[in-house]
Design brief:
This protein has 2 domains: 2-251, Rossmann fold (3-Layer(aba) Sandwich); 268-381, Dehydroquinate synthase-like - alpha domain (Dehydroquinate synthase-like, alpha domain). The protein is built from 14 helices and 13 strands. β1 (18-23) and β2 (30-35) form a beta hairpin. It has helices at 2-9, 42-48, 61-77, 96-108, 123-135, 149-155, 193-210, 214-227, 231-254, 270-277, 287-306, 310-322, 335-343, 372-381; strands at residues 18-23, 30-35, 55-60, 82-87, 116-121, 142-146, 160-165, 168-175, 180-183, 348-349, 352-353, 355-360, 363-367. 50% of the residues are buried. It starts with a helix and ends in a 5-residue tail after the last helix. By secondary structure, the protein is of the alpha/beta class. It is globular. Helices cover 47% and strands 18% of the residues. The structure holds nicotinamide-adenine-dinucleotide. Nicotinamide-adenine-dinucleotide binds next to α3, α5, α6 and β8.
């Protein structure tokens, strides 16, 4: 239903309102352009960045049939020569073998260091195409065109690129900032409500760590996911998405390479979340769904160690509940597995747990106080209803 309302909005009805966010990263600075209908302006927007050369347009098999034509046409209308490179959709493809296949295709298509990559799709496409751009001919520019909520509000911004290996997710990667990000909220029209909801878990995270006032807005949006977004909401989406990007942008500007402890705030809910993600059958819970569970655990630990109020905890949990995100572990998950996997998470340095907690809504802290026993308690809590 939500898709239908947004789909109707594609091409008519909505105001072509746009919102821009700039990332100030010295010579790596770039703009994020958020506007309904902007898929058709990609060529013009790219040409304004002064990127020249041929384009390797990388997308997945699902997004290809939905949006690749429009983006390719827009780039060609702006004078770019484009070759299209498509891989099978899904996280399972985000690995080095796919990278090698795509790179071989790009070489065969004659791309050299004067070319650039355009990544069209969700976080899987953005992470992998960005990684390719970071290593192809020792690094070429790339542009992100995110088409999931997750990718629009989170993964397309900040320059983290990666692929998965057998030992774990995102273990091989590079920091490589895009030259431009173009997000078209109407492209979310074709997502299932479940994928919209899981992407919104990252918006709840942003609200919890930086902008608690947004929680009410997210609860209001939740009411519309099944019934269909109203035109008024569709017109507001660019600003809502840009507000989220701005939260991430300011954190990235303060700590681009995650060395100062600030970027780690974006991991709120993720340490326990990653432990859960690795302990459930592959693909049974989406990333945003495990982040929801991880946030419930982190809120509990924030109350225990940082004096977070019960009312603040409740407000975040009520928002996750309104979004129908999971707050209870599925049957069969072993606590020992969650703990072991959580501890192999990158947020654990030299065996020391560095956990993102909240002293208040909007006030994250990096805590060393969380013990194994705490994690066990938090996991036990996740077996109870909310
Ligand atoms: N780099 C970062 O900072 C960062 C941050 C968060 C997550 N990530 C990564 O992002 C990935 C998850 O991203 P995701 O949730 O976007 O998953 P995804 O890219 O797998 O997309 C989910 C599904 O939706 C489909 N899809 C994409 N856009 C669509 C559209 N507009 N309409 C219909 N279907 C569409 C895809 O084909 C796929 O089947 C993970 O690999 C995660 O590690 C990276």
């Amino acid at each position: 239903m939500a898709q239908n309302a947004l789909a109707c909005a594609q091409g008519r009805g909505y105001t072509r309102r746009m919102a821009n966010v700039s990332l100030a990263l010295g010579s790596q600075s770039y703009n994020v352009h958020v506007a309904n209908g902007s898929l058709d302006s990609v060529g013009f927007l790219v040409s304004r960045t002064r990127l020249t050369g041929r384009v390797a347009l990388i997308t997945d098999s699902h997004v290809c049939g939905l949006y690749a034509d429009r983006v390719q046409r827009s780039l060609e209308d702006a004078g770019y020569e484009v070759t299209l490179h498509v891989f099978e959709e899904g996280e399972a493809q985000k690995h080095l073998r796919t990278v090698e296949t795509l790179v071989n295709e790009m070489v065969a298509a004659g791309h050299d260091r004067s070319s650039f990559v355009v990544a069209l799709g969700g976080g899987v496409v953005g992470d992998m195409a960005g990684f390719i751009a970071s290593v192809y001919y020792r690094g070429i520019p790339f542009v992100q065109i995110p088409t999931t909520v997750m990718a629009q509000v989170d993964s397309s911004v900040g320059g983290k690129t990666a692929v998965d290996i057998a030992a774990g997710k995102n273990l091989i990667g590079a920091f490589h900032q895009p030259r431009l990000v173009v997000a078209d909220p109407t492209s979310l029209s074709t997502l299932s409500p479940r994928v919209i909801r899981e992407g919104m878990a990252e918006m709840v995270k942003h609200a919890a760590i930086r902008k608690p006032a947004m929680l009410g807005e997210l609860r209001a949006l939740a009411d519309e996911i099944d019934l269909g977004f109203t035109l008024a909401t569709i017109n507001r989406l660019p600003q809502i998405i840009a507000d989220n990007i701005a939260i991430k942008a300011r954190v990235v500007e303060a700590d681009e390479r995650e060395t100062k402890g600030v970027r780690a705030y974006l991991n709120f809910g993720h340490t326990l979340g990653h432990g859960i993600e690795a302990s459930v059958p592959y693909g049974s819970l989406l990333h945003g769904e495990v982040v929801s569970l991880g946030m419930r655990g982190a809120l509990y630990l924030s109350r225990k160690h940082c004096g977070l109020s019960a009312a603040a905890e409740r407000e975040v949990l009520d928002t996750l509940k309104a979004l129908e995100l999971p707050l209870t572990l599925p049957e069969g998950v072993q606590t020992a597995d969650v703990l072991a996997r959580a501890q192999s998470d990158k947020k654990f340095r030299n065996g020391q747990i560095r956990f993102v907690l909240l002293s208040d809504l909007g006030n994250p802290v990096l805590s060393d106080a969380v013990t194994q026993e705490d994690l066990r308690e938090a996991t036990a809590l996740l077996r109870t209803g909310y």
